[in-house]
Amino acid sequence: MPVGSYVVDTRTGKVGVVMGHEGPYVQLRPYGGGREWDATPDAVREATPVEQPTVTAPATPASAPRKDEESGGHRSPGSPSRVPRTDPRA
Q: Which of 27, 35, 37, 54 has a Cα-to-Cα distance from 67 of 20 to 30 A?
């Protein structure tokens, strides 16, 4: 199995990423990090697409800049100001 492949250790049922080969063993690490473990090549099989971890994009935070703010705050003429108003009594 090539380095970086997702595999299943059939002895434990754990999904791992192939990190390398050392002697007669395949070195595996859990997806996302963790302690490496050794498996014999005959106890490792390629992970199916369902078994492979999925990577999802992080949600955009509400405080993320808007498109018009990313360009330095330039707005088309006549658009309302986005400058927060402050209360002079505060």
A: 54
